[in-house]
Amino acid sequence: MFSAQERVYDPSAGTEITCDKFEELLAILQSEEPLSTNSGSGEINRKVQPVDERKRRRMISNRESAKRSRLRKKRWLENLTEEVNRLSFENRELKNRLDIVLRYGNDVSRENNRLKTESVCLKIRLLKLYRVLINMQKSHT
Question: Are residues 29 and 50 in the same domain?
Fold first, then answer.
């Protein structure tokens, strides 16, 4: 590729490296073997390892966060279920009370109508009695 004496500029490090070193690094990057510090590329290994470690820690953190989120959602859903049950019970109780009040109101309304009818009948009877009394007084005079 290059002669051994040629140097290549490494922009990431801001220095020049020999072609031998460049080819060695290129071979390491192209290989499927994991990087190790014994290959003479300790600097690359130190750069890759923190990225992998950060990635691993981030993945663990994301899993824990997702687990906490699922637990929060589960508690939220349980609370909603409890509230639905409580409100359903309260609704049944209120319906029962309303039914009792409506029945009582109907009973009172029927009794009121009966008393009105009785009152009208008594007024008519009273009028008839007044007429009888007036007729009796006329006949005695």
Answer: no
